[in-house]
Amino acid sequence: MYDAAPEPAAIETGESSAQARVRPGRAEIEAAVRTLIAATGDDPAREGVLETPARVARAYREWFAGYAMDPGSLLSRTFGEAEGYDETILLRSIPLVSTCEHHLAPITGVAHVGYRPRDRVVGISKLSRLVDAYARRLQLQERLTRQIAHALDDALQPRGVAVIIEAAHGCMSTRGVRQHGVSLVTQCWLGEFGDKEGLRRELLGSLPRRGSEWGGEG
To answer: Is 188 considered catalytic here?
Structure first.
């Protein structure tokens, strides 16, 4: 059964309390999808696509769940019982699903998130949730990379933060140049990772691909 969407209401994007948006109700969403189906040249009343508007509305609630998440709150609980551990903490190959804001095409790939703690550490699942909170929005990969890095830096104030994303873009593989097997790599280095090339090389060497293939500059 269809999970009814809430009535139009202001929803917090997590970006700024001063920038709220109004989410359309279920009927408006489904009407918009029927218009898009008609725009393809198909018949929105055809049996095969009759339930598509409801399915798409449900899917959008999942694909764009990040707008209802506050990334800062995900990192609000930290721990100081790491026995003074101050080496790099790296969570590799976090699955990433996002949507290109230019063509509403999928972005799929992985994110690698690392930091060098100063006093506090955060549960590793929170790193994965942080990626999801920013990814499940309309995005640019470059902005997404920086948002994740700066949110972690603001919350933990560690000695350094590193975020690397490698992703394939549907807007490139399904339209335009139509090139498959191409991935975009973006990097953000903060603090010690930005200052010390050796740390960057060490982290890149810990990733599934060889560090020399990634390049060491951000």
So the answer is: no
Closest CA to 197 of 166, 167, 165, 160: 160
Active site residue 180: no
Delineate the domains of the chain, giving CATH numbers in brackets.
10-63 (1.10.286), 71-214 (3.30.1130.10)
pLDDT at residue 175 in the model: 76
In order of 35, 55, 57, 100, 211, the CA distances from 48 in angstroms are 16, 12, 16, 27, 48
Among the listed residues 51, 102, 142, 157, the single catalytic one is 102
Catalytic choice (12, 15, 103, 202): 103
200 vs 216 pLDDT, higher one? 200
* Catalytic residue flag (residue 142): no
Say yes or no to pLDDT of 97 above 60: yes
